[in-house]
């Protein structure tokens, strides 16, 4: 099982199964991860799937698209490591991916 690990602001960890070809947001929603509302359903327009991906993982992700950057510009609590989880497509190589909320 390829895992995605979500870490809440209080340090609570939740490991869920990632599905190759599906987004990290979809895995979060499927497993009721708190803090991932995904109001737009993954169309990169709401920012409610915002997560932080630390440096040890961010280099393995494709760069942000212009659309992702634009939506993050309007999101709350954006840092240099911010990503939209609906724009991260899970792959086997991302097994163990850690994302922070
Ligand atoms: Fe809306 Fe990701 S689900 S921007």
UniProtKB/TrEMBL annotation:
<dbReference type="InterPro" id="IPR001041">
    <property type="entry name" value="2Fe-2S_ferredoxin-type"/>
</dbReference>
<keyword id="KW-0001">2Fe-2S</keyword>
<dbReference type="GO" id="GO:0005829">
    <property type="term" value="C:cytosol"/>
</dbReference>
<dbReference type="InterPro" id="IPR001055">
    <property type="entry name" value="Adrenodoxin-like"/>
</dbReference>
<dbReference type="Pfam" id="PF00111">
    <property type="entry name" value="Fer2"/>
</dbReference>
<protein>
    <submittedName>
        <fullName>2Fe-2S iron-sulfur cluster binding domain-containing protein</fullName>
    </submittedName>
</protein>
<comment type="similarity">
    <text>Belongs to the adrenodoxin/putidaredoxin family.</text>
</comment>
<feature type="domain" description="2Fe-2S ferredoxin-type">
    <location>
        <begin position="2"/>
        <end position="101"/>
    </location>
</feature>
<keyword id="KW-0411">Iron-sulfur</keyword>
<dbReference type="GO" id="GO:0140647">
    <property type="term" value="P:P450-containing electron transport chain"/>
</dbReference>
<dbReference type="InterPro" id="IPR036010">
    <property type="entry name" value="2Fe-2S_ferredoxin-like_sf"/>
</dbReference>
<dbReference type="GO" id="GO:0046872">
    <property type="term" value="F:metal ion binding"/>
</dbReference>
<dbReference type="GO" id="GO:0051537">
    <property type="term" value="F:2 iron, 2 sulfur cluster binding"/>
</dbReference>
<keyword id="KW-0479">Metal-binding</keyword>
<dbReference type="InterPro" id="IPR012675">
    <property type="entry name" value="Beta-grasp_dom_sf"/>
</dbReference>
<dbReference type="GO" id="GO:0009055">
    <property type="term" value="F:electron transfer activity"/>
</dbReference>
<keyword id="KW-0408">Iron</keyword>
